Amino acid sequence: MKDVADKTGFSVNTVSLALRGSPRIPEDTAIRIRDAARDLNYMPNQVAKSLVSRETKTIGLVLTDITNPALTQAAQSIELALAERGYSTLFATSNNDLDEEKRVIAMFQSRQVDGMLIYPRSHRELDHIRQLRRAHYPVVLLVADPDAGVDAVSVDERRGAYRAVRHLIEMGHKRIGIIDSSNPMGNHEKRDGYVAALTEAGLSPDPTLSADPQGHSVIRGYWAMDKLMRLADRPSAVFTANDSLALGALRWTQKNGLQVPEDVAIVGFDNIEFAEHAATPLTSVNYEIRLVTDLAVARLIELIGTEGALPEPNVTLIDPELIVRESTQRRL
């Protein structure tokens, strides 16, 4: 900044005001100073600015799996929403590992990000995140149950799964399989919705119709579908925890000569672009990415702007829509 002052003949204070866009500086003076700064390749010292303002204008975003198409799209939406508000985004991935999640959260704290948006690995193991909230650190979860004790914005996964399975029941299916994690410390909402829909219809959940994919990818869905369809009394329909798993299940049917939905119906979750354009377009629960990310970013900015103690946590659950396509039909 002193170099710019020496080049233009103005004081360092005048240069500082001009580069910050102060209305106190005449426009012709501001233009001369900005031109000189550009000629000198001047870059503001963001670290020094943050020490004065106590804001870094950066947000930490923790994802569970960068290869998940829904999370990739959410990350892009979050980055754009934050950029509109003058914030930069730092990304990190926990790879569905709790210890790694704790490590990247600590890393973001050491970088002094102004707040965090987190897709937690588990909806049940949140003590390390609650500790941040108790210290009045701005953090918003992007998946959670209503009793999380932390600000959260999420699609109501339990409701979405219930609607998906209820649709299959209405189509005449009674043996409905589920491809979802059975980790006792994991995320139960989709499985709870599956069980609720069956129970409401007077159908007893059959443990043999549950397959743990031990992952979230297409190939994991393929082998989980293989397990279900090798049963002596196999399911006539399958609900999967995400569309990647559903695409794997669909691929299994193609490789094994089964027709969808005539031989087996398939429903996914997230409504990613590939679901609509699959060989057999998939029925899927719509994950309202833009709405979720806009509301989460708005809440985080509100928390960042709060002076003193943060307000009571607010959990927003969005009621999802079921998008019905060719992979389900009424069973004759």
Automatic annotation (TrEMBL):
<dbReference type="Pfam" id="PF00356">
    <property type="entry name" value="LacI"/>
</dbReference>
<keyword id="KW-0804">Transcription</keyword>
<dbReference type="InterPro" id="IPR028082">
    <property type="entry name" value="Peripla_BP_I"/>
</dbReference>
<dbReference type="InterPro" id="IPR010982">
    <property type="entry name" value="Lambda_DNA-bd_dom_sf"/>
</dbReference>
<keyword id="KW-0238">DNA-binding</keyword>
<dbReference type="InterPro" id="IPR000843">
    <property type="entry name" value="HTH_LacI"/>
</dbReference>
<dbReference type="InterPro" id="IPR046335">
    <property type="entry name" value="LacI/GalR-like_sensor"/>
</dbReference>
<keyword id="KW-0805">Transcription regulation</keyword>
<dbReference type="Pfam" id="PF13377">
    <property type="entry name" value="Peripla_BP_3"/>
</dbReference>
<protein>
    <submittedName>
        <fullName>DNA-binding LacI/PurR family transcriptional regulator</fullName>
    </submittedName>
</protein>
<feature type="domain" description="HTH lacI-type">
    <location>
        <begin position="1"/>
        <end position="53"/>
    </location>
</feature>
<dbReference type="GO" id="GO:0000976">
    <property type="term" value="F:transcription cis-regulatory region binding"/>
</dbReference>
<dbReference type="GO" id="GO:0003700">
    <property type="term" value="F:DNA-binding transcription factor activity"/>
</dbReference>
